[in-house]
Specification:
heterodimer, A: 313 residues, alpha/beta, Rossmann fold, four-stranded parallel beta sheet, 9 strands, B: 427 residues, Urease, subunit C, domain 1, TIM Barrel, 2 domains, eight-stranded parallel beta sheet, six-stranded mixed beta sheet, 28% helix
Chain lengths: 313, 427
């Protein structure tokens, strides 16, 4: 694994290996000195073409806890910025003798494009590209689920909300399928469901009451404010009425069910405060585990790169 | 100059010929087929033994990028590529800078084409001023300057009323409207077919209905106004069925398909291959098969290259930011011949779709080797195995998903107005 671009290239063994490695890093968190020297002398670039708080900071912390040097670069981008300048940015960063680029970009396929053109000693980690993939988020979600429910083959997992625009949902569906999840459900109005979604191996529900029944995990997705302008839904109010996760709706699920959200949450739009702050919510655990999972991915990428093994792209 | 092509197998669909025949040309005209005229003595002889002799191919849609986009290609470079592809007549689009919406641009393109002398160039002018979709272009002036039709290409019209008036006005100037059916709102800046690939790759999709809705809308107007319309680059099975019904109902419509739509589907866009970025997008296997069937039953009457050369930088970006379209002039003939090898079309019908019928759509006297007609021809070695690479491409645009493809059959000679304009090395 030189690059880490999407979930679909991993098999169950590789995916589980990442989760196990992450588990070993959770103990680092508890230490007084929260550092291990695995990536000492390595330079990691957070190359963000799109704003992010959570993903960028957890990657930064993960890298620092592995003793790497971290460079944060936010590139203002717009539709008019073409690949030419993207490649030029890339080449100048390469020249600085860096080791890993963590890339977030508003266009689907950007991480893949960069991986195709980058110098052979550099690893690319996809931190979210357009609507395509957000593989580290999916892994930290899988990790969080595994901390609560060991056996994926017994789980019903519901993903609720704006599936259409969500790279998180795409990667989650891939990861959960690879891990052998019993049933993956997606719940949304048709305007927020991509065409052919059932072909990814999910059950489609447009009705929240039916969809949430007996699920073990509920993953809520963020609803972007601009979706109203695109005529995807009539109002936040009606969306919350139909799809918002309230204590009443949560009661339809398995009593042990956990509630997840990749953040940042819109209280009163997709989730009520009672649920977000309630005992079944693991939203803050997700953030915490995100660091361990990203430490695992960084360390695996570096060790593979050094062994010169390249069984990805 | 007197030129003779001897010992070849002549395929001239317009004259229903598919048999060994010699062709004799004098001063730019075909003077005899089969037997030489009395007292014939050639200045130049081409031995076409084991080769096919075809009318020069007629291409419905080539972007020559001049004026204004010379960083992509020039009339000189692309007409030379056309000659190497066996194409002797091509229609170019108004999407230049400035847009071809007045006689000045038409005259410039015609002059540059004549200077380069590799291929006849016909201009399809802008339907609306600046292709902005608001005001009609001066179509009578465009026609007088030599335009063979008008089009707004993929640029949207401001309203359905503008479309109606543009169609009516074009018809009163006896100009064919070349329409690219696309509902821009439904397409919604998509860049691939809306389906499994768009879902997997997270790329915004263009539903098939973006084409069929626009097509139905145009057909409704055509039914009422009876205006001659040519539909460009159909991409879905449903569109083919709609055109078939319209033709059964005797509406004055024709339609074409691009050669790559007969081969590629959305599943070819794996790993975000920007060279497969096209508008309309490559769709599904049933769509691809439906387009092939449309050719077989005569619903679609022309196959075109839909040539869109780009500089390499235009393809070096994440998929959605790459420029759509590819450099296809030189893939056209080998891929048409492959349709014959695959049994989709007979040789004669395949050749008809790139000669006689596109010429009829453009309303030009080309695409045949009738005695007394223009002496445009190409000679093809149907057994020649070769690989299409950026080195074999004469087009300035090296952007084609067909790079590296093993091809069978290649143009060895192209004759324009009775004169050789291209000969393959060792051909």
């Amino acid at each position: 694994m030189r690059h880490f671009l999407d979930i679909g290239r991993l098999n169950c063994k590789e995916l589980t290996h990442i989760l196990d490695t992450a588990k070993s890093f959770t103990s680092v968190e508890g230490q007084t000195v929260k550092k291990v020297p695995l990536l000492r002398g390595k330079t990691i670039v957070n190359l963000f073409f799109e704003p992010s708080t959570r993903t960028r900071t957890t990657f930064e912390l993960a890298a620092k806890r592995l003793s790497a040097d971290v460079l944060n670069i936010s590139v203002a981008t717009s539709a008019t910025v073409k690949g030419e300048s993207l490649l030029d940015t890339l080449f100048s960063l390469e020249a600085m003798n860096t080791d890993i680029f963590i890339v977030r970009h508003p266009e689907s396929g950007a991480a893949e494009f960069i991986a195709k053109h980058v110098a052979p000693h550099i690893s690319i980690i996809n931190a979210g590209d357009g609507r395509h993939a957000h593989p580290t988020q999916a892994l930290l979600d899988a990790f969080t689920i595994r901390e609560h429910h060991q056996d994926f083959s017994k789980l019903n997992i519901a993903i609720v909300g704006d599936i259409l625009h969500s790279r998180v949902a795409r990667s989650q569906i891939e990861a959960l399928n690879i891990l052998g999840t019993r049933e993956i459900r997606v719940i949304a109005p048709r305007t927020l469901l991509p065409a052919n979604i059932e072909q990814l191996g999910v059950q489609v529900f447009q009705d929240c009451t039916q969809g949430l029944r007996d699920v073990d995990v509920i993953i809520m997705l963020r609803l972007q404010k601009e979706r109203m302008q695109g005529a995807f839904i009539p109002s936040e109010h009606e969306y919350f009425q139909l799809y918002g996760l309230t204590p009443e709706r949560l009661a339809l699920a398995n009593p042990e069910a956990i509630v997840m959200h990749p953040g940042p949450i819109n209280r009163g739009v997709e989730i009520s405060s009672e649920v977000a702050d309630g005992p079944q919510s693991v939203i803050l655990q997700q953030v915490k585990y995100g660091i361990a999972v990203r430490m695992a991915i960084l360390s695996i990428a570096i060790s593979t790169g050094e062994r010169g093994v390249d069984h990805e792209t | 100059m007197k030129l003779e092509i001897l010992n070849g197998h002549l395929v001239d669909p317009a004259n229903e010929i598919d048999q060994p025949k010699d062709v004799f040309m004098t001063d730019g005209k075909v003077v005899a087929v089969d037997k030489p005229p009395d007292g014939w003595k050639a200045d130049h002889t081409i031995n076409a033994a084991n080769k096919l002799v075809l009318p020069g191919l007629v291409e419905l849609s080539a972007s020559l990028r001049q004026p204004g986009q010379e960083h992509k290609a020039t009339i000189q470079s692309e007409t030379k590529a056309a000659a190497a592809a066996g194409i002797t007549s091509l229609a170019c689009l108004p999407t230049t800078n400035p847009v071809v919406d007045s006689p000045a641009e038409v005259e410039l393109i015609e002059r540059l084409s004549q200077d380069s002398g590799h291929c006849r160039v016909y201009v399809i002018g802008a339907l609306t001023k600046g292709l902005k979709g608001e005001n009609l272009s001066e179509m009578a002036a465009l026609k007088a300057a030599g335009c063979v039709g008008v089009t707004n290409v993929l640029h949207p019209l401001k309203s359905s009323l503008v479309l109606r008036r543009a169609m009516e006005y074009a018809s009163s100037q006896a100009l064919t409207v070349f329409t690219h059916p696309l509902d821009h709102h439904l397409a919604n800046n998509g860049c691939v077919h809306e389906g499994l690939t768009s879902l997997r790759l997270g790329l915004p999709g263009i539903p098939g209905a973006a084409e069929t809705a626009a097509l139905a809308f145009h057909l409704a107007l055509i039914e009422e106004l009876n205006v001659r319309t040519h539909f460009c680059r159909l991409s879905t099975l449903r569109s083919v069925n709609m055109i078939a019904r319209a033709r059964e109902n005797h509406l004055p419509v024709t339609a074409d398909v691009s050669i790559l739509h007969l081969y590629l589907t959305d599943s070819d866009i794996q790993d975000f291959d920007g060279l497969c970025h096209n508008l309309p997008p490559y769709r599904t296997q049933p769509d691809r098969d439906g387009l092939r069937m449309g050719l077989q039953d005569g619903t679609l009457t022309a196959i075109c290259a839909d040539h869109q050369p780009h500089e390499i930088e235009a393809t070096l970006a994440p998929f959605q930011s790459t420029e759509p379209g590819s450099s296809n002039l030189e893939s056209l003939l080998p891929l048409v011949l492959q349709l014959v090898q695959e049994g989709v079309l007979s040789l004669k019908e395949a050749v008809r779709c790139v000669t006689q019928q596109p010429a009829e759509i453009l309303g030009i006297s080309a695409g045949n080797l009738s005695v007394g007609g223009t002496a445009d021809a190409c000679i093809v070695d149907p057994g020649l195995d070769w690989v299409l690479t950026s080195e074999t491409l004469l087009s300035r645009g090296k952007n084609t998903p067909m790079l590296g493809r093993q091809c069978k059959g290649r143009t060895t000679h192209t004759i324009l107005g009775g004169k050789p304009v291209y000969q393959l090395e060792n051909g």
